[in-house]
Amino acid sequence: MGNDTIANMITSIRNANLGKIKTVQVPATNATRDIAKILLREGFIEDSIDDNENKKNVLVSNPKYQGRKKKSYITTLRRISKSGLRIYSNHKEIPKVLGGMGIVILSTSGGIMTDREARQKKIGGELLCYVW
């Protein structure tokens, strides 16, 4: 069985949101860095830092919470395309999440980007995850 770093990152962030944990550490790869940049730009996480601790590349993310009760900005984070079943879409058929309130993260020939950027550039690709 292979290592799916994107699924590990999504699961770690989802578990941190359920436990209201402030920091999440995942293995740093180009894909996880790009997804963290998108989540940071869209306002779902506060910070993302590359940490070279004990010669291991680790990406440290801080999920964003609001209010005293620490309600998470990420209500649902779900992996779409899996290692056993890849799901692709062209730019016309990219799904909209909650009428545009959420985002779909895609892996395209132009790199990892959101659904809005892919529609604007008219590029399709592999659907990685839903975030809302």
TrEMBL record:
<dbReference type="GO" id="GO:1990904">
    <property type="term" value="C:ribonucleoprotein complex"/>
</dbReference>
<keyword id="KW-0694">RNA-binding</keyword>
<dbReference type="GO" id="GO:0003735">
    <property type="term" value="F:structural constituent of ribosome"/>
</dbReference>
<dbReference type="Pfam" id="PF00410">
    <property type="entry name" value="Ribosomal_S8"/>
</dbReference>
<comment type="function">
    <text>One of the primary rRNA binding proteins, it binds directly to 16S rRNA central domain where it helps coordinate assembly of the platform of the 30S subunit.</text>
</comment>
<dbReference type="GO" id="GO:0019843">
    <property type="term" value="F:rRNA binding"/>
</dbReference>
<dbReference type="InterPro" id="IPR047863">
    <property type="entry name" value="Ribosomal_uS8_CS"/>
</dbReference>
<dbReference type="GO" id="GO:0006412">
    <property type="term" value="P:translation"/>
</dbReference>
<comment type="subunit">
    <text>Part of the 30S ribosomal subunit.</text>
</comment>
<keyword id="KW-0934">Plastid</keyword>
<dbReference type="GO" id="GO:0005840">
    <property type="term" value="C:ribosome"/>
</dbReference>
<dbReference type="GO" id="GO:0009507">
    <property type="term" value="C:chloroplast"/>
</dbReference>
<comment type="similarity">
    <text>Belongs to the universal ribosomal protein uS8 family.</text>
</comment>
<keyword id="KW-0689">Ribosomal protein</keyword>
<keyword id="KW-0699">rRNA-binding</keyword>
<keyword id="KW-0150">Chloroplast</keyword>
<dbReference type="InterPro" id="IPR035987">
    <property type="entry name" value="Ribosomal_uS8_sf"/>
</dbReference>
<dbReference type="InterPro" id="IPR000630">
    <property type="entry name" value="Ribosomal_uS8"/>
</dbReference>
<keyword id="KW-0687">Ribonucleoprotein</keyword>
<protein>
    <recommendedName>
        <fullName>Small ribosomal subunit protein uS8c</fullName>
    </recommendedName>
</protein>
